[in-house]
Specification:
- It is a single chain.
- This protein is α/β, with parallel strands linked by helices and 353 residues long.
- The protein folds into two domains: 89 residues, Rossmann fold (3-Layer(aba) Sandwich); 166 residues, NAD(P)-binding Rossmann-like Domain (Rossmann fold, 3-Layer(aba) Sandwich).
- The protein is 43% helix and 15% strand.
- The protein is built from twelve helices and twelve strands.
- Strands 1, 2, 3, 4, 5 and 6 form a six-stranded mixed beta sheet that branches. A six-stranded parallel beta sheet has the order 9-8-7-10-11-12, with helices on both faces.
- Helix 1 packs across helix 12 and helix 4 packs across helix 5.
- The longest helix has 22 residues.
- It is globular.
- Bound molecules: nicotinamide-adenine-dinucleotide.
- Nicotinamide-adenine-dinucleotide (NAD) binds next to helix 4 and helix 5.
């Protein structure tokens, strides 16, 4: 465990179960150097407990990097609830999860991720105050983080097309969106409004039909979406999709999407760089949701200010793309270096107090 790549010096991992509700899951706290470990809770059916552990560790570590690069005073953590096949997670299970979060006394702050809604977070909030992503209250920041995540991805696509294709206009841009869930759907809406042409895929056929009607999107089979002849590939489903098998077949010159952990390994970032495919590092481009959730939790911004903060993802990515070109270094490594720098500065500040 301690020497595994995914563990990467995690401060703590909590395995929990609740006999009364049947809840089982894991909370991983990667780092609290910059503040309480913030990251969403994913409800998912895993093939094995080991797969759940690997997922939560990779996601949690990613949150430390994401929060550091977004300039948030938060560390990185994540939770997974292991969902029984074919069964929903019950309100009693989310309440029990809230009790576990509460026992961590603020070292971990939860929110939504895949398979978890604002209504589910309201159940969690019955037993803990270390929670965000609750229904919006007046002009304060809050609510479902996914529209903000999608807006950040939209801004990131603008930065990428400017850097790689030297265009600012999204009208006529061909974008392939993988996954039409909370993030993918909101992203399609913005891209459609901006005049982009969409190709989409989801394992949920109703979501595809909806996108076909609303956004005049062309629907392709899930196994074909990564390999479309488009300007931008936007992965908005699950992770690990950029790997040794898929990368040689990708035709888009830009990859810019909301999914977490898109690269199967860091070396896949080099493979994309070698193929001259511009990759927007996932945890930089998809930080909109956590910017919103953190602002809500810290009560540090109004809703309007949150949208402005999310828009800054465009500048952050532009800086990463410029440095990547100037130093001939893959974008994922530039982003990692920026995150390390901020976490190191945080450790130095903590040590001097
Ligand atoms: P979601 O569960 O609402 O949507 C995921 C969608 O992907 C679903 O419609 C699902 O059917 C589809 N899907 C699953 N496997 C697929 C496949 N093989 N091919 C095509 N489609 C497939 O989740 P979401 O909240 O939209 O999150 C999407 C991704 O973005 C995840 O990786 C998540 O971790 C990441 N993310 C989400 C947020 C947020 O604010 N929700 C923030 C940051 C990152």
């Amino acid at each position: 465990m301690f020497s595994s790549k995914a563990f990467d010096g995690h401060e703590g991992v909590t395995f929990f179960s609740d006999a009364a509700s049947g809840l089982r899951g894991i909370i991983a706290i990667h780092s609290t150097t910059l503040g309480p470990a913030a990251g969403g809770c994913r409800a998912w059916t895993y093939d094995s407990d080991e797969a759940a552990l690997q997922d939560v560790l990779r996601l949690s570590r990613g949150m430390s990097y994401k929060n550091a690069v977004a300039g948030l005073p938060m560390g990185g953590g994540k939770a997974v609830i292991i969902r029984e096949p074919g069964k929903p997670v019950t309100a009693a299970q989310f309440e029990a999860f809230g009790r576990v979060v509460n026992q961590l006394a603020g070292r971990y702050v939860t929110a939504e991720d895949v398979g978890v809604s604002v209504a589910d977070m309201a159940c969690v909030a019955r037993n803990t105050r270390y929670v965000s992503g609750l229904a919006q209250d007046g002009a304060a920041a809050g609510g479902d983080p996914s529209p903000k995540t999608a807006y950040g991805v939209f801004c990131g696509i603008r930065a990428a097309v400017q850097a790689r294709l030297a265009i600012r206009e999204l009208r006529g841009l061909r974008v392939a969106v993988q996954g039409l869930g909370s993030v993918g759907r909101h992203l399609c809406e913005r891209l459609h409004e901006a005049g982009a042409e969409l190709v989409v895929a989801d394992i949920n056929t109703a979501a595809c039909e909806d996108a076909r009607v609303k956004f005049q999107a062309r629907v392709v089979a899930p196994e074909e979406i990564l390999f479309q002849d488009v300007d931008v590939l936007s992965p908005c489903a699950l992770g690990g999709i950029l790997n040794a098998q898929s990368i040689p077949r990708i035709r888009a010159p830009i990859i810019a999407g909301g999914a977490n952990n898109q690269l199967a390994t860091p070396e896949d970032g080099q493979a994309l760089h070698d193929r001259h495919i511009l990759y927007a590092p996932d945890y930089v481009i998809n930080a909109g949701g956590i910017i919103c959730a953190a602002s809500e939790y810290l009560k540090s911004a109004t809703e309007d200010q949150v949208w402005q903060r999310v828009a800054r993802i465009e500048q952050t990515l532009t800086g990463i793309f410029l440095e990547s070109t100037a130093t001939d270094t893959p974008t994922n490594l530039i982003a990692d270096a920026l995150a390390h720098e901020r976490m190191h500065a945080g450790r130095m500040t903590a040590a001097s107090h």
